[in-house]
Amino acid sequence: MLGEYRIEGRRASDIAASVERAIGAGELQPGEVLPPLRELAVYLEVNPNTVAAAYRTLRDRGVIETAGRRGSRVRPRPASTSREALRTVAPPGVRNVADGNPDPALLPSLEEALAEAAARNTRRPVLYGMPAVDDDLEALARAAFTRDGVPEGPIAVASGSLDAIERVLAAHLRPGDAVAVEDPGWGSLLDLIPALGLRPVPVGVDDDGPIPERMAAALAAGARAVVVTDRAQNPTGAAISGPRAAELRTLLARHPQVLLIEDDHGHGIVDLPLHPLSGVTDHWVLVRSTAKAYGPDLRLAALTGDTVTIDRVRGRQRLGPGWVSHLIQHAVAHLWRTAAIDPKTVAGAYGERRDALIHALEERGVPSRGRSGMNVWVPVPDETGAVALLVHSGWAVAPGARFRMRSPQGIRITVSGLTARDIGPLADAVAAAVGRGEVRRYE
Questions:
Q1: Residues 6 or more apart from 43 whose CB is under 8 A from it?
Q2: Ranges under pLDDT 50 in the chain
Q3: Which helix (H) or strand (E) segment is 241 a member of?
Q4: How many whole angstroms separate alpha carbon 439 and alpha carbon 441?
Q5: Which pLDDT score, from 0 to 100, does residue 78 have?
C-alpha cells in the first residue's frame, strides 16, 4: 500500500495526521493516489466511515483532492507546501530582481501620516464599540471607487489583499468548491485556495486580462467563484482593457450565482484606467490594497461589494481581529487626502524601466510581456535551467513555478530596482540563459 509508507491510526484524526506527516516528510509525493476508502478501512481494521472522515478532514485542509471514482490523491501542491519556498536565493554579489517589491524611492514618507494619526488618536482614542471603519477613510475610499465606476456598496477594511480575499471566499464557499483563477497568477492566492479546501481552476491570461473562452470553460466546469486582477497582474503585467471588460461582464452576467472577486492592487502605481467587472453577479467584491503604492508594511486594503458579502466579512472579522488598527486607517486616509504620491509619476517610472527591458529583450530575440506594473514575464523553455544560469550571471529572478498551474514555463523579473545601466547587462544575461545570445562584459 503506497510503496514503503504505511498509513496508521484508529481514529479519523490519527489517520489524517499520518497522511500529513508522510507528505511533510516527502514519503507521499504530490499527485500520489491514496488507497480506496474501503481498502484502507480493511487494512486498518476500522469502520469505513472513520476513513471517510479522515479523508474529508484532509480535503478540507487542502492536503488531498477527491475525484469521485478516480479516488483521492495528494494535491499537486499541498497547502503545506508554500510557493514562497520556490524562491531564488540571491548570493552575495548577485542582484535580486525576483522579490516583487516596489522601489523604496517611489514610496511616500510615512512619518507625517503616522504622526498625524497618533495625534488624532490622542485627541480621540479608539475604544471598544467604535465603528470598525474610520469615517474619513470610508468616505475617501467610496469617492475613489465611484470615480472609477465601481458600483455603490458598503466599505470594509482588511489587513491586505490576501486577507480580504480569504474572508470573501470563506463567506460564500465550502470545501470542495471550484474557484477560477488566473494562470499564471499570484502565487499566494494559488496557495490560499487549496489551503481553504477549495479547488483552483486555471484560466489563461493575455495582455488584456483573463481570456474569455478560458473563463467560459471554467464557469461551465462548475466554478463557483472567479478571482481576477484588474491591473498590474502578477506576474504578467496584464491589465483588463475596455473591450475585454465588456466581454467578461457579458459572460459573467450569464452566471449571476458566481462570486466575483476583483483585485486592484495596482491602484496608485498604474496610469491605465480601471474597467471594473463588478455588479453583474449577485455577489461581488473589489479589493484595493495599499501595499504597492505606499509600502508592504502598511497592511490595509479597502473593499466594497454587495451588502450581503460585506456584512458577512464584517461579522466574521468582529469575531477574529475585530478591526484593522485605526492608526493605520488614519495614516492611509492622510496619504490619500494629501495625494502623497502622484500615480502618473510612479506609473511612468515603472513603465520606463519595464518598457526598456522589454525592448532590449526584443532586440535580442527574446519575447516578453509587461503591460503594466513592476514585473516582466519572460517565457522560457526550461525555467529551472534559466534561473540557474541567471544566478551564475549575477541575476536572481523568480522561477515561473511560483505562479503557474498549467501555463507554459517562464521567469518573472521585477524592474523596480533597475537603472538604465542595468537594462543591457540583464537583457544579455536573459538572452544567454534562454539560448538566444552570449553574455557580454560591461565595465
A1: 1, 7, 35
A2: 439-443
A3: none
A4: 7
A5: 53
